[in-house]
Design a protein that fits this description.
Blueprint lengths: L1 E9 L2 H30 L7 H10 L15 H22 L21 E6 L5 E2 L5 E3 L3 E6 L10 E6 L5 E8 L2 H7 L6 E6 L3 E5 L4 E3 L3 H17 L6 H35 L2 E5 L3 H4 L5 H7 L1 H15 L2 E5 L25 E3 L6 E3 H12 L23 E2 L11
Parallel strand pairs: 1-15, 8-11, 11-12
Antiparallel strand pairs: 1-5, 1-7, 2-6, 3-4, 4-5, 6-7, 8-9, 9-10, 13-14
Amino acid sequence: MQLRYGFRLYPDTVQAAALARAFGCARVVFNDALRAREEARAAGLAFPTAGRLSKQLITEAKQTAERCWLGEVSSVVLQQSLRDAETAYKNFFASLRGERKGAQIGAPRFKSRKDSRQSIRFTTNARWSISDSGKLHLPKVGAVKVKWSRSLPAQPSSVTVIKDAAGRYFASFVVDTDPGADAARMPDTGQSVGIDLGLTHFAVLSDGTKIDSPRFLRRAEKKLKKAQRELSRKQKGSTNREKARLKVARAHVKVADARREFHHQLSTRLIRDNQAIGVEDLAVRALARTRLAKSVQDAGWAQFVAMLEYKAARYGRTLVKIGRFEPTSQLCSQCGVKDGPKPLHIRKWTCAACGAVHDRDHNAAKNVKTAAGLAVEACGAQVRPGPVLAPRSEAGSHGFSPEPRAA
């Protein structure tokens, strides 16, 4: 299974300037590729092939006065930028044909030097390496200091250098994990659990455990409002405005990092303790358009469920998603009688059929477990789903923001 391990980078002034050149050159090549394809489409011609674009936009462009500075960076970075453009078009056309899952995506857009996120990728052809002292040697950049929070389980196949909106640098390594080592790390267990996600409590488990919602955004609102107010008063284009923008960005990434760390710790604990997990397939986008939008976004349910999904695939666990229209809050978990919908302010209710008194969330969690078919599972039989690619922020040191640490 392929995972990403991310670590914080600390380039010096010269290395930061070299990375800025690499970011800029990769951006220019990407934009040139988009422009060449758009011009071909406007002229009614076939899209130029990847080989033709590589020759025209990289090899021949280096010989011109307008693009001679492309030779100052590694050619692998430029080639990977062309691949990114090609992949963007493939995903766009696959989405138009309905072959790509999820919401329909738009056509590739031109990149800007003012984008909040910049990235470049080095493959093995670039001959990057990790020294014995722990520094990351990048071609035409130098030996960059890395803060290693763990050791890599295998030799990485590529490394992506990322600069986020807060001005932080990260190295994201793609690593193939060992299924045998993963299985030994988390042995089989005969436990199963149902999870009811909410706002008052982030999660309520079918065994009665209630996990409070940290509400990271709500707790940081006062500081965020002050930073945003100071930014709005700065003159556009000034140095002070850029300083204020960085202050706002750092406040936001601090919230996002804390939320992601909470999701990682909780999802890892649930995967470690349970062989099978049942969870609702919530319509997060629809809920984010209601009056509870800020609280829904602050909870980050989608990110948490995505972590459960790939960690279950990695460690041989079973994750079952039940339909979002399953009446888990209306059914009595004791006798199965449907008692009808109830307003959100009703947190406890009594079943009219059997007289059982239910906590709303705990009852829903037990119904989730039953609907997922996990109520009678106790043998701990191992079910290994097919491998899935982990999110970008799967692994790394604390504060790895660029999209979603290995468990």
